[in-house]
Amino acid sequence: MTWTRTVTTDDGVRLWASRSGTGTPLVLCHGGPGLWDMFEDVAEQLGDLATSVRWDQRGCGRSQRCAGPWTTDRFVADLDAVRRHFGLRRMALLGHSWGAQLALSYALAHPERVSALVCVAGTGIDPDADWHPAYKANFRARLGERPERLARGQELTDRPQLTEAEDRERAVLQWSAEFADRARDLEHARRTADPWFGVNTECDKALNAERKRTWGTAELHAACRELDLPVLILDGAHDIRPRSAVDSLERALPRVRRVVLPDAGHLPWAEDPQGFRGAVADVL
Q1: CA-CA distance, 240 to 102, in Å (whole number)?
Q2: pTM of the model
């Protein structure tokens, strides 16, 4: 059974959250920035292993629309509000993509409140310049395998204003590049975009700009070397973000295991649910 809740942060912003399953407390941090929780399938896959808490980050998805602030520190505080709301003394954290950065940031700030950390399809702790150009090239190459999608996506991107349906269509075309299975990539992307809540572009731009300013420092590397928690780095081999980007995090962490699923892309639970469940079960 799934229970839907409203979590109120210390500055009065209302966050959508839900809880389901039985077992180890596991809080899920979705990707973005500016997106919403897409972990319904993950919660179902882990339903007999974990009590999964899903939530939409500030100003995104089903959470209250607000004016920010769009900072990692603020999102870490929001995540702690979710923890307190559900009465969790300690929790395992699973973060995907940008959510892996958020989960790591929380674990560094509050290691005593985290039992284990799972970083899915993240991008490590080095500067964006070390991996982002390769990501952009891989994105265009994979989308270019379907020239009609590349052309349609560019057409929509060039328009000054989009309807909600066109905005969703552009996202689906872009997200199709995230999947390894080229026969089902559009199907997977459409499922990811359903339901559609619209991307919070202000949040996305602000947090990505903050990352470029603050990520990749010697202080961050040093903090990760001191993180005394079991960590799983879980990747899909066909992620268009080069997996070498995560090497920096793997090298820094003292208690880390890395699993690469050979037939998956950026959302490995969608393309290899058994491999994904098995790897996470070992941590939980």
Answers
A1: 20
A2: 0.97
